[in-house]
Amino acid sequence: MDIEILTIGTELLLGFTIDTNGAEIAQAVAAIGGQVVRRTSVGDEPELIRSGVAEALARTGLVITTGGLGPTRDDITKDIVAEVFEAPLEFQGEIWQQLVQRFERMGRKAPESNRSQAFVPRGATVLRNQWGTAPGLWLEGARGTAILLPGVPGEMRQLLKHEVIPRLMARATGTVVRSATIRTTGIAESALAQRLGNIEAELAPLSLAYLPSLPGVDLRLTAWSLAPDDADRRLDAGSRRLRELAGEFVYGKGDEDLAALLLDRARSRKQKLAVAESCTGGLVGGRITAIPGSSEVFLGGVIAYEDAVKLRDLAVSADTIAAHGAVSEEVARAMAAGVARRFGADLAIAVTGIAGPDGGTAAKPVGLVWMATSVAGAVESFSYVFPGAREEVRARATQWALFQLLKRIK
Predict the structure, then answer these.
(1) Distance from CA of residue 55 to its chain's centroid?
(2) 358 has a pLDDT exceeding 80
(3) Looking at the predicted structure, is the pLDDT value of residue 277 above 80?
């Protein structure tokens, strides 16, 4: 079951909106054994939409579109696809009444412009949209099948789950396309590839992809067109092998978040956590508090950006700063010990560095970050020179500091 995705909207081409719809559709299709062979984005122009749909149908016979089903003048997807299928639009009073009732429940009168959403190509199956005003459409004809979904991500997701995937499953072959992800951090993509060697040959017929990002490198294994049990068995074995070879740089699987894993481990040990940050300016605390339930573990933190704050709030010695500088092992260790004492925390993280773009020297270059972790009063320190622009240095330092503390309490 080969499928193409056509996401429609000039805002996608301008870069103001990220195409998350295409990714969600691809994942859902793969889970039932389909394969997305092409993803295309086009603007709100009749000829672009017409050619995009027609060419996709010619290649695969099945295209899923998103966008252009709303009530405004630039929402023309339905009109163009109706022309491709030679299916004239017909007014359906039932859809219009549902729209009127929806607006009445919100205490409003349905705008006349929404009436356009009640016009449906002749012969199309209406995919009822309980989460918005634009119904989805399923058209079939000599040229193939076109599935039209709204561009609003929440509406698209619900229609995909409840209306589209069940219908596509009837066409499924019984095989699946499934993936497993191993998450690593603290090692560059090239170094990780060298560590894994010629693993692809060992893992065949699974495919392996390296997915580098600021937090680290994800290793994604994919089983293509296999029976479900066979796919799961091979993915489990392949994941174990990847974890074995990547070793200490592995911290999780799937979409697991490093901060969430750290909190879970600290919670199981009944330990409390505090942070002291300079160059990261609250990013460590932000990563932690982004996790629901973090208050069970996280006590608080100090953003000690100026040296005076390090002295006043973290009890860092002025002599230590004078002798070694604010970006140093000695200061990082003092910050970790100081914030642990101040909050009465079992665990602590401290970060101080030169994020750039200025401030570096030959001895202390831009990107140098000293970090320290405290576990039950025992402090360990480490440094790294992170590459990239200011925001990249800060993000990588945040990830690395969380990772080092997780390793210690594991």
Answers:
(1) 30
(2) yes
(3) yes
d(CA 258, CA 252): 7
81 burial level (CB within 10 Å; 0-12, 13-18, 19+): buried
C-alpha 311/C-alpha 196 separation (Å) is: 46
Burial of 174 (0-12, 13-18, 19+ CB in 10 A): exposed
Interaxial angle between packed helices 329-343 and 307-314, expressed in degrees from 0 to 180 and rounded to the nearest 10: 40
**Peptide linkage before 205 cis (omega within 30 of 0):** yes
pLDDT of residue 383 exceeding 90: yes
Q: How many CB atoms lie within 10 A of CB 293?
A: 11
Distance CA 24, CA 35 (A): 13
Question: Residue 261 and residue 246: Cα distance in Å, rounded?
Answer: 18
The C-alpha R_g of the chain, in whole angstroms, comes to: 27
Tokens of 53: 């749909």
The beta strands (E) that lie in 245-345 are given as 250-253, 273-277, 298-303
Query: Does residue 172 carry a pLDDT above 80?
Result: no
Of 299, 287, 382, nearest to 342 by C-alpha is 299
DSSP 367: T
Query: What are the structural domains, with CATH classification, of the chain?
Result: 2-169 (3.40.980.10), 176-253 (3.30.70.2860), 258-409 (3.90.950.20)
Checking if the pLDDT of 210 tops 90, the result is yes
Sequence-ordered list of residues with C-beta below 8 angstroms from that of 226, at least 6 positions apart, any chain: 175, 176, 178, 205, 234
Structure-block tokens of residue 273: 């956590």
277 residue type, one letter: E
What's this model's pTM, rounded to 2 decimal places? Answer: 0.75
Q: Which of 304, 303, 295 is CA-nearest to residue 272?
A: 295
Task: Report residue 334 CA to chain centroid gap.
Answer: 36
Give the tokens for residue 213: 């990002």
Extended beta strands in 294-367, E state: 298-303, 347-353
- Residue 185 gets the label, from left (phi > 0), alpha (psi -120 to 50) or beta, of beta
Question: Using CA atoms in the order 235, 236, 238, 240, what is the torsion angle rounded to 10 degrees?
Answer: 160
Are 68 and 75 in contact, with CB atoms under 8 Å apart? yes
